[in-house]
Amino acid sequence: MDRRSPAAVLLRFAIRKGKQQDPSLDTSSLSSSFQATGEVLTQGKHRYYSLEGPDVAGVLEGLSVLAGGACDRFVPRTPSRLRAARTCYDHMAGTVGVSLHDRFQDLGWLSAAYDLTPDGTRAFEGLGIDLEATRTLRRRFACACLDWSERRPHVGGALGAAVLKAALKRKWVTQDLDSRALDITKHGRSQMSAMLGLRLESCSEPTSNLVNCSG
Fold first, then answer.
1. Confidence (pTM)
2. pLDDT (tens digit per residue) in 17-67
3. CA distance 213 to 201
4. Residue 72 to residues 68, 69, 135, 180, 187: CA-CA distances in angstroms?
5. Whole-angstrom Cα distance, residue 98 to residue 211?
């Protein structure tokens, strides 16, 4: 179980089951004591808990089985155009943003700790990103930002903002004046396929068919 998993869901399962077994059970201290076992990451309206260790993870996995198994598969209700590509503050989100995040890591440009590798440094500089200036900004250089439609991370922080600026400057994407939606241009699809191995279909296609990564 990942140490950054949304364990609060499992905690609610445990509280619910405990109440079913004993309605008089006082569970008020359970949540607070659980929070004390690890760090809390707040991202928008979502809250994620860092587990203290593998023993805690094992207990929570067991509780999830008792609570009725896995949750239903997440099905986003985001409009197709916004889900395909949009801005999240000043960086890229949606299916394309998440796919870029995964591709940067698959290509070995960005480590699991969101540090640039030597290959990544050369690659991002090749996109016209001034990494030295980007690192001097008073914000995190790069981080995982949970995508609210995909429930997976896209690249946030100063690097994420720089990637969006580069994509706009290179006319890989155009920004909607009336919404946060981004349109992937024909040129952008061609360039992302050639440079990153991302094959992007037209944004008018179903979102599930929008992104394909070459091996």
1. 0.65
2. 555 666 665 555 555 544 445 565 665 666 666 666 666 666 666 665 555
3. 11
4. 11, 9, 40, 29, 38
5. 10
